[in-house]
Amino acid sequence: MHAMQYELTLPADYDTDVIRDRVSRIGHLLDDWEGLGFKTYLLRERGVDGSPVNQYAPFYLWNSVEGMNSFLWGGAFQGLSNDFGRPSVRQWTGVAYEEGGAARAPARVAVRQRQPVPDGVDLAALMDDAVRETGRLAGEDGAVLAATAVDTGRWELVRFSLWEHDTPKAEGDVFRVLHMSAPGRDRLPRGRQW
Q1: How confident is the model at residue 75, as a pLDDT?
Q2: Cα 7-11-16 angle, rounded to 5 deg
Q3: Was domain 2-187 assigned CATH 3.30.70.100?
Q4: How far apart are alpha carbons 96 and 169 in whole angstroms?
Q5: Model confidence over 125-161: pLDDT tens digits?
């Protein structure tokens, strides 16, 4: 499992309906993308849910590197780059994934938490804690799913969760889910990823 995200931070006075319209027009194009576990089309709006910025920031979980590379190099990503400029694309290696009790409900809200991996910690113990935390989040009322991944270049954990209601039981940056393409979600490996 591989996680991926890019962020387009938009001007404070940006009309975010432009993003909503874009997603309503093209969101379905990844509904059957080979190798994709899921893509959530995410939006933060300045002053909503504590956000200091307007930001479009899709988050992906991939079942295969080939699917991810096909998206990035095969033309789909080029359209976004043509319209907004090419953003930096963050990638993380999967640590854990769990479906929540509300797995069949549509996701309304996503929460992303990034946390540095401190020097000197026992990596095995930290990753075991991350697996447990992923399971705990998925077990919370209203959780659709939870995932944790690590960027070993920056030594950073990212914890991502989806919620069926507007009051998530997770801390971090809160995004509204505009659409979710999930052709391979049922094939994402559950639990610990090693």
Answers
A1: 81
A2: 75
A3: yes
A4: 18
A5: 999 999 999 999 999 999 999 999 999 999 999 999 9
Whole-number Å distance between alpha carbons of 172 and 64: 27
User: Beta-carbon neighbour count of residue 46 at 10 Å?
Assistant: 15
- CA 56/CA 84 separation, integer angstroms: 11
Phi first, then psi: give them for residue 129, nearest 5 degrees. -65, -40
- Indicate if the alpha-carbon torsion angle 138, 149, 130, 54 is positive or negative: negative
Burial group, residue 154, by CB count within 10 angstroms (0-12, 13-18, 19+)? exposed
Q: Which residue has 């069926």 as its token pair?
A: 164
Burial class (CB in 10 A: 0-12, 13-18, 19+), 129: middle
3-state class of 176 per DSSP?
A: strand
**For position 114, what pLDDT does the model report?**
96
CA distances from 150 to 36, 93, 137, 188 (A): 19, 5, 17, 17
